[in-house]
Amino acid sequence: MFAIPHLDIPPLASAGGTIRLPGSKSISNRVLLLAALSVGHTDITDLLDSDDTRVMLKALAELGCRIEPQADGALRIHGVGGALPVQRAKLFLGNAGTAMRPLTASLALLATRHGGEFELSGIPRMHERPIGDLVDALRQLGCPVTCLANEGYPPLRLGDGQPHALQLEQPIRVRGDVSSQFLTALLLALPLVAQESDVAIEVVGELISRPYIEITLNLLERFGVNVRRDGWERFTISAGSRYASPGRIAVEGDASSASYFIALGALAPATPGTDGITIEGVGLSSIQGDIRFVEAARLMGANIAGEANRLHIRRGTWPLKAIDLDCNHIPDAAMTLAVMALYADGTTTLSNIASWRVKETDRIAAMATEARKLGASVEEGADYIRITPPARPQDWRAASIHTYDDHRVAMCFSLAAFNPAHLPVRIEDPKCVAKTFPDYFETLFQVCATPIENIPVICVDGPTASGKGTLSAEVAEQLGYHLLDSGVLYRLVGLAAEQAGLSTAEPDLKDPAHARRLGELAAGLRVRFEGQKTLFEGRDVTDDLRTESAGMAASRVSSVAEVRQALLGLQHAFRQLPGLVADGRDMGTVIFPDARMKVFLTASAEQRAVRRHKQLISKGIAANIDGLLADLKARDLRDISRTHAPLKAAEDALQLDNSGMDIEQSVQQVLDWWQGRTAFSGS
Ligand SMILES: Nc1ncnc2c1ncn2[C@@H]1O[C@H](COP(=O)(O)OP(=O)(O)OP(=O)(O)O)[C@@H](O)[C@H]1O
Ligand SMILES: Nc1ccn([C@@H]2O[C@H](COP(=O)(O)O)[C@@H](O)[C@H]2O)c(=O)n1
Predict the structure, then answer these.
(1) Is 414 helix (H, G, I), strand (E, B) or coil?
(2) Are 623 and 613 in contact (CB under 8 A)?
(3) CA of 675 to the centre of ligand 1 (A)
(4) What is the arithmetic mean of pLDDT over 184-209?
């Protein structure tokens, strides 16, 4: 996940490949609650691991439900069978509507029947999301429900610690025209108390987002509860209902998350050698309403083939066709249509989307504001949005997209990186995608391609112990870029030579046959990088490589042209989306001469010796400053004076002498320089 202030997505050109989606949020949180309320245990597979499911899991654990990860990856939920092991709790539910609403209903009923008391709260935005219609319905049932701040909004207190009789004889009336989640919450909760007689729910107003109710009904059935449905106005839960675990249940991939990749396949040319985008884990037999996004995407021109559990998407009509669509049936996925509209041949109108205004943010306002930043003309109304794309490529703007702590805004606007002006897009607070799709951007980058020159590289070259590695790692971390520590590759060649019994003594390196053998050794290095670790032939050699003798051996083998040539491809392969920070001696001069920014980092030899001394001592390695100073001067001299790719500043490098700076200041200087070179320097 990109837990950084902003992520700059370079202009993207094509897409292709297969992705497997994370589990559906709607199904995951419903299944978790149903499993917790059932008799027996349930093993759940393919559960979404995200902020919202973590919130639900934490709440269930605090309510006394036992949760055990299984060896096969399933999560075992031991159901409490409608009992109340914990009578009082304060639950924090973040911004997870799929936890807040169903838990409100279930806990209100259980607290009323058994004499419990619960407080449910969330982040400030959750306290602005209306829940009054559900509160009204629960009060009709005789549940003591108190809104602790503003009437009709969380935080809530459920129950008053005393048991009360529930009034189940009359149909419970609930509004269906603001959010279908209130009805879902009641449908999930009422089987807990429908023992003696049937319990009916009557929907007031036109029920919106019906497909979400279908998911609820489908899952209730899987957990042994049948609900009679009369149209979309009346639902009856039979007397004697009781949740029973299905034993094992798989969560299908999230259809709303699929929408970004369906749109991607529709608007991006297929990467040569691929056949467009294939999505696994969700398909045409999905029980999720957002699967109907497929129809909407087809209307806009997407070429989509589907199977039960898989979708295959290619660009069809281009530009996409503008549409005028009632999106009430796909409220979440419809946001993706708003971004597809930026690539359409006219004005697209998405209507009947009033519910967007009470989601994670006011989504109509958010989509309009951010689309305008890109150069689109947007009209918004109480329940619609109308988008006209920028008229010409030159009318597009490089925009820094504000994401309003809304995962869908972030994911939608990433697709603006396919703009015809080839401008990058900045996504602010990219970690907000953790709500439903923590690895969204990683997945996107896996299947997207762009000409190599579009992938930015920052080179950091300089003498040993100047702080290149430290600085590069921090800059890469803050930008979400990949990191190439090229010195490690030369250190590995030194180590591999030692293991193979090949001399790295300077006189031997002059022998052409010996040099060739070292080159072959370098070409066949079996190395893997796992986070901070370097694995050589399966063995963790991270610490072995950091010794001074490994550095000296590296310095010697690095003067061999065959070795340098052999490591070329490996280094180039690090240039991947969204960008690279490369640290070494010849990054800016030889390996990435087209790098967007080059820094030549220096510090006085004495300073560097002191730093290296501290570094070694802190790792428990004995060292002496005079010896280190002599070694680093010898290493620098060899690196500077060798024939092949000597250490020197590239002509266009920015010089940074950090002798008088601490690490933070050096990093900030480089980040400031970088910001000045991005398309967002005014942001
Ligand atoms: N600006 C700085 N101020 C003080 N100490 C620093 C600074 N930058 C780096 N250091 C410290 O100096 C030591 C050497 O830094 P680092 O290993 O990053 O250097 P390097 O240039 O990558 O060395 P090499 O080329 O040998 O790999 C580290 O302990 C690091 O914490
Ligand atoms: N691009 C590079 C990087 C390193 N070297 C040589 O490897 C030695 C070890 O590098 P460290 O950065 O890990 O200290 C270094 O002294 C260089 O001789 C290189 O040639 N080119």
Answers:
(1) helix
(2) yes
(3) 23
(4) 93
**Does residue 558's CB lie within 6 angstroms of at least one atom of ligand 2?**
yes
**Which ligand 2 atom is at minimum distance from the Cα of 469?**
12
Q: Is 554 in the pocket of ligand 2 (CB under 6 A)?
A: yes
Measured in whole angstroms, the distance separating CA 24 from the mean position of its chain's CA atoms is 14
Domain with CATH 3.40.50.300 in the chain: 455-481+578-683, 485-575
Average confidence (pLDDT) over 208-220: 90
Q: What residue's CA is closest to ligand 2, atom 21?
A: 585
The verdict on domain 25-250 having CATH code 3.65.10.10 is yes
State the complex-level ipTM.
0.97
Per the CB < 8 A criterion, the answer to whether 39 and 242 are in contact is yes
Residue nearest to atom 9 of ligand 2 (CA): 487
133 classed as catalytic = no
Query: pLDDT of 309-339, one tens digit each?
Result: 999 999 999 999 999 999 998 999 999 999 9
Which pLDDT score, from 0 to 100, does residue 683 have?
Answer: 61
Question: What is the CATH topology of the domain spanning 485-575?
Answer: Rossmann fold (3.40.50)
**Is the pLDDT at 179 greater than 90, yes or no?**
no
Tell me, in angstroms, the distance from the centre of ligand 2 to residue 480's CA.
24
Mean pLDDT is lowest, of 241-255, 530-544, 559-573, for 530-544
Q: Whose CA is nearest to atom 11 of ligand 2?
A: 487
Task: Judge whether 467 and 666 are in contact, CB under 8 Å.
Answer: yes
**Which of 156-165, 200-209, 218-227, 458-467 is predicted with the least confidence, judged by mean pLDDT?**
200-209
Helix residue ranges per DSSP H, 144-229: 181-189, 210-222
Find the catalytic residue in 332, 485, 636, 639: 332
Q: Supply the DSSP symbol for 432.
A: G
CA-to-CA distance for 636 and 615, rounded, in angstroms?
19
* Enclosing H/E stretch for 219: helix 210-222
**Any ligand 2 atom below 6 A from CB of 486:** yes
CATH class of 6-22+253-451: alpha beta
